[in-house]
Amino acid sequence: MADQLPNELVEALLRAVPEAALIVGSDFRLIAANPAVSSLLAPLRPGELLVRGLRSPDILDAITRAFAARKPQKVQWLERVPVERLFDVYIAPIDVADLPRMVMLTLRDLSEIRRVERMRVDFVANVSHELRTPLTSILGFVETLQGPARNDAVAQDRFLTIIGDQARRMSRLVDDLLSLSRIEQSSHLQPTSIVDLSSIAGHVVDTLAPMADENETQVVLQAEEPVLVRGDRDELVRVAENLIENAIKYGASDKPVEVTVSPRDRDAILIVRDHGPGIPPEHLPRLTERFYRVDAGESRAKGSTGLGLAIVKHILARHRGRLTIESGSGQGATFSAILPLSEDRGRES
Asked: How far apart are CA 109 and CA 87, in angstroms?
C-alpha cells in the first residue's frame, strides 16, 4: 500500500504537522508517521500493525468508526507508563481518488494543560483553606466579644490579641501571594543591576538578630566581600530573609545558624545551614511547592504562610539561579542559593 502513495509528499506533509501525526491504512497498518510519533509510541516501521505500538482499544475503535462512517472521530487517550500523559486523538479519513482508504491520526498532548489546571485548582483550594481558618477564628471571637465576653475585660484583651494575630496571619498570606504574582509576571526579565550578595546577607543577619535572640539562637555569618551578582536587591534580600528566618525558626536553639557567602567557579553561593531535626528525604522534592509543609501545624504556629520557599525558587529562577536542599532526619538542613557571578567586577550599582 505504501508504494502506491507519493511518499515524499506524505512525509513532507507529516513533518509540517507540529503534533504527533501518523497515517494508517484500512488494514490498520502504519503507512507513514512524523518524527514526533517516535517519542510517544514503540518503534513502528511502515507496514507494521498499529497495535504493536499503540495499545488503546478506544483509539482502535475510533479508527474503525472513522472508516465505517467516513467522518472524523475524536477520542482521549490516557497513557500511564512511564509517566501519566493525556492526549486528544483526532482521526480524520483521507479520501483521495485512486488512493487506498486511510486515516490520519493527530495526537495533541494535553499533559501540561492538565497539570496547570490541577495546579490552579489546588492553588485556589489551598488559598481558601489558609484564609478560612483565621477568618473562622476571627468571626468566632468577635461573636464572643459581642455576647458572653461583652463586659469581661480580661477575656476581651485575650480575644483581641488572638484576633490581631489571625489578622496579621492573613495579611502575611496576602502579601506573599502578591509577591509571588509580581515575581512570576517578571520572570522572563533578568535583572541587570549589580549587587553584593555578601552585603545583602549581612544586612539580613542584622535585621533578624531580634528574632534570633527571641529563639535563643545565634546566627554566624562568614562572607567574602564583595561577591557581586546581577540582581534585584530587594528580591535577593527576600531570598536571604526567607532562608535565614526558616533556619532560625526550625533550627536547634543550642547550635548556631551558619550563613556563608562565597564565590565558586562562576557562581555566587549563599549557604544557610541549621542544626535542627532535619527534613525526611521524601519531603525534599516538594518543599518549594506552594503551601507544602512538612508539619502543617508547627509551620502555622510559627507564622509560616507555606509560600516562602516557592518565592525563593521563583526569585532565583528569574535571576537564572537555582536552590538546592540537603537534609535528612536528625541531620539539620542546608539550603544553597546559587546565582551566576557578575562578569562586571566593578562596584555595586
From this structure: 5
